[in-house]
Design brief:
about 500 residues; alpha+beta; Chloramphenicol Acetyltransferase; six-stranded mixed β-sheet; 12 helices; 15 strands
């Protein structure tokens, strides 16, 4: 049975919470937009979301804090959990355009969470043009990274129009009780003592290893130690500022845009060069950003990228006890005058170099240390990045929600200090690209999207989807599908 006082946020989860709470420009929300071919049954949807909250306990957990306010919050089951405070439905007031839908997603993202309740919301948006609807899921980044968001969604969806046959019965809702601040404070103290003890034990083990290594092979031992220290220095270095002379402003609001492209063509472009899909994805983003600068008569040689590196499935895997099983690699990439091959090679080399950094396995301890760093300094470091890119693999086959088919999955992630965030989710043969842009850094997001689409068109060697996916008619069977029709965008040289 879970402890009544729940578990304390640690590592990246805690750091994400603290920075988002301490600076509005570091607002940390993830919004997933599922475009549906019709309007799902409200009763079925509500039942499935209720079931989802039993399968994914964090959706029924609220942040609780102790008396002293010096520790990260704990997540514990909410004794007053009310599904209707998190799940609602609405109808677009206008004609149901894609722009109106993105405006609703933006409002949802920029509205802060009630931090006394579970950190998520879901909205069924009806009245989308073409007889369609959309499901908006909003999560706080401290409880889910991109991959975790997809995994949560997979517990909601169905395999066809009808309910899943022989679906396992969900567990009962978790028990929840009122918890006093004194109990929370005592639990925080116990956890902090336990972590301090663990840190001392690890430090003792490191010293013992150094002592033994100094006797057996001092040169190799101390060379490795200094290499690790240098890696930690690179990992924690605070850049001077963004490298773009154009996208320098930072504010507290951002705009959303999205488009799609055929995933098979992106994958083929990467495979033909013996590179990964992520290499092709980041290369396309870099090319698009170069063209955006050229549009404004600005030459930029390099840009600073944030690229999440998953820790799932390796020796540092902490996905069993944390919602964010990633660390962030921050590096510069050349963007001016390169071929597509050179761009992919550059991305590949930088990501591989970061994967080999010894500090990568210290990601969580370093995030814990961030509690000693003032939030303004953390915000300054976050704003020094030009763009964040994230590539999240999704389900390869069509899925349904309460009788409605999902025809598009668009990831819309807060900029979190960067000028631009570009996230890709793959689903049912398409790559869905969601873009958020700080309004001070990028006042003309539609021009940015045109250049990003041009960059992807060049990388895949063919046209990509329109900026307005609702403008794409469905295939022959009449089922709306966001990537079914391309516009006249062709690869640029």
């Amino acid at each position: 049975m879970a402890e009544p006082t729940g578990q304390q946020l640690t590592g990246w989860d805690a750091a994400t919470w603290r920075t988002a709470a301490g600076d509005p420009s570091l607002r940390s929300t993830v919004v997933g937009v599922c475009l549906l071919d019709s309007t799902p049954s409200w009763e079925r949807l509500r039942a499935r979301v209720d079931r989802l909250t039993c399968l994914v306990p964090v959706l029924r957990q609220r942040p609780i804090r102790g008396l002293f306010g010096v520790a990260s919050p704990r997540l514990a089951s909410d004794p007053d959990f009310d599904l209707d405070l998190h799940l609602r439905r609405m109808r677009l007031a206008g004609s149901g355009t894609w722009a109106e839908l993105l405006d609703e997603a933006r409002r949802l993202s920029l509205t802060d969470f009630d931090r006394d309740r579970p950190l998520w919301e879901m909205v069924l948006v009806e009245g989308v043009e073409g007889g369609r609807s959309a499901l908006l899921l909003k999560l706080h980044h401290s409880i889910a990274d991109g991959r975790a968001t997809v995994l949560i969604g997979l517990s909601l969806v169905e395999l066809g129009v009808d309910p899943n046959p022989d679906e396992p019965i969900a567990p009962p809702p978790p028990e929840a009780t009122d918890i006093t601040q004194q109990a929370v404070s005592l639990a925080d103290i116990a956890d902090n003592v336990r972590r301090a003890k663990g840190a001392l034990e690890r430090a003792g083990e490191i010293v013992a290893d150094l002592a033994r290594g100094s006797l057996r092979d001092p040169v190799s031992t101390w060379s490795s130690a200094f290499s690790t220290l240098a890696s930690v220095g690179r990992f924690t270095a605070v850049p001077d500022g963004p490298m773009s002379p154009l996208m320098t402003g930072r504010g507290t609001t951002y705009r959303f845009a999205a488009f799609d492209l055929p995933f098979t063509e992106l994958r083929a472009a990467a495979k033909s060069r013996d590179r990964s899909v992520n290499d092709a994805f980041v290369a396309a983003v870099g090319l698009g950003l170069e063209r955006y600068h050229v549009r404004h008569s600005v030459v930029v040689d390099e840009l600073r990228f944030n690229v999440p590196i998953s820790l799932r499935g390796d020796a540092g895997d902490r996905s069993g006890q944390a919602s964010n099983a990633v660390t962030i690699a921050r590096f510069t990439l050349p963007v001016a005058g390169l071929t597509v091959d050179e761009r992919m090679d550059s991305v590949h080399d930088q990501v591989e170099r970061w994967r080999l950094e010894p500090a990568l396995r210290w990601a969580d301890p370093l995030a814990e240390v961030s509690w000693l760093v003032p939030v303004p300094l953390l915000a300054y470091a976050a704003r020094a990045s030009d763009v964040t890119t994230s590539n999240v693999p999704g389900p390869p086959t069509p899925l349904y929600v309460a009788g409605a088919r999902i025809v598009g999955m668009y990831p819309l992630v807060a900029t979190i200090g960067a000028a631009v965030n570009v996230t890709m989710v793959t689903y049912d043969g398409s790559a869905f690209i969601g873009v958020s842009a700080d309004e001070r850094a990028v006042p003309d997001i539609h021009e940015l999207i045109a250049d990003l689409r041009s960059g992807f068109a060049t990388v895949i060697g063919g046209p990509v989807g329109a900026e307005d996916p609702l403008s794409a008619p469905g295939p022959a069977d009449g089922t709306p599908k966001a990537h079914a029709v391309r516009d006249d965008l062709t690869p640029a040289g």
